[in-house]
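Known limitations

Files may contain more than one protein. Parsers should not assume a single record per file. Below, a two-record file is shown to illustrate correct handling: read the sequence, read the token line, then continue until end of file.
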Amino acid sequence: MSATVETLVGLERRISLNLNPAEMEVEVGKRLQKLSRNVKLDGFRPGKAPMKVVAQRYGGEVRGEVLGDTLQKQFVAAVQENKLDVAGYPHFEPAGEGAFTATFEVYPEVVVGDIGQVKVTRPVVEVADADVERTLDVLRKQRISYASVDRAAEAGDRVHIDYAGKIGGEAFQGGEAKDFPLILGEGRTLPDFEGALTGMKTGETKSFEVTFPADYFAKELAGQTATFEATMKSVHAPHLPEVDEDFAKSLGIHEGGPAKLREEIGANLDREAKRRIQVRLKEQVMDGLLAVTPFDVPKGLVGMEIRSLMEHAVNDLKARGMKEQDIKLGEQVFEPQAQRRVALSLLLNSFAGANKITAEDDKVRAKVDEFAQSYEDPTEVVAWYYQDANRLRDVRAMVVEDNVVEMVLQQAQVTDEPTSLETLMGKA
């Protein structure tokens, strides 16, 4: 066997392999001989079929196996001889009598650029009492109750109505309902529709017009004016629970009452703020490292990542109730994400290796504890992670990434930016 290596474009390489047909035929004969000892063919007892018959029946299949095994063996030997770090799988093609080529890609040499050029904006957030009270208001609204009232409907009330609509004197699809529930001001229906209901009392019937917007989702109704007749069936006013001992207990705080509840909310908001800050820092650091470290990314690895992302997306959509034949996803949708993921994986491996960055056991445990804090029984969650090597491996990878981010931040251009919690959470 002899092999020559040719450099193509970028990371592509091609190896020429010259196989020995005589040696391959000897191997084919050995395998057919072994097969003939147990093979079952019509008209012959097991193991008694003539070699000529066995060769006619299985010769092509065995010859293909021998060719594949020989190519793979010779390819591996050539790769080792030339000290090549292969990325993905080779593509074999015939190139004449006993000759083949194997085209493949190699891993790039990743040398991280000047970290001092990486620019990062770090949000600085302090959880304030107002943030805690806002969260309390959200929790109260999630547990809102309604009581029947004998007055005109107001914004925030829950009402039940019967209604029927017509356009040009004709009923239209979706224009009629009985005992329809609606919270006024919530925006589930058109503002003009809700506005007409505001001020109505139980038992009252009212006619009014509503014009559908030009961009209404039901195109047959877009821009049309409908006449509705609505009857108010009931009006219920909202009641927010008081922040007291019972409310605290309903949220799992059995001792300490509202004060302890506020303390827990503050701690949870602080943890969430730190998590989001870390996510933002990591994204900026990764973008910065990629920007200062240009290198070619193996197309084969990107293709494998695309297929993995597509498979995950399809399975997710199927779990949501979509039929597989209705799922139309093109590879181009996933290519940017796949390209970035592969590039970051190569870059992080190189950076961590060059700087001897590892996942220390105490930091792994701290990360697991951090995940567990948001659960009712943290000890069960910790045990769950440590029972499975794969789960723990994922945590170790996160810790390595955190350590990379920490090292880069020590050398990067970091600007602290005072930020409100609402802005950090994307609510302002």
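...continuing to the second record:
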Amino acid sequence: MNTTLIGIALLFLFSLIKKDSKYAHLGINLSRIYCPKCNLKQPIIRKPANERQTLYGGHTCKNCKTEMDKYGVEIN
């Protein structure tokens, strides 16, 4: 039982670690992000625009309508 709890805790912690040049898909970003096109600071409290943003986080810029992930990288 203890090994199961330790395994679950380690799995959660490893999902927060940066992987290669990309960030972890299920990670948590606690810092503020800026729009990659117009450099507008994104709000902390957000309203998801689609299902992907609901599940994995992300923003849509109010100024230029650029969609970005939770780390501020533009999504095409």
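Parsers that stop after the first record will miss the second one. For reference, the second record is described as follows. The first helix runs from residue 2 to 15.
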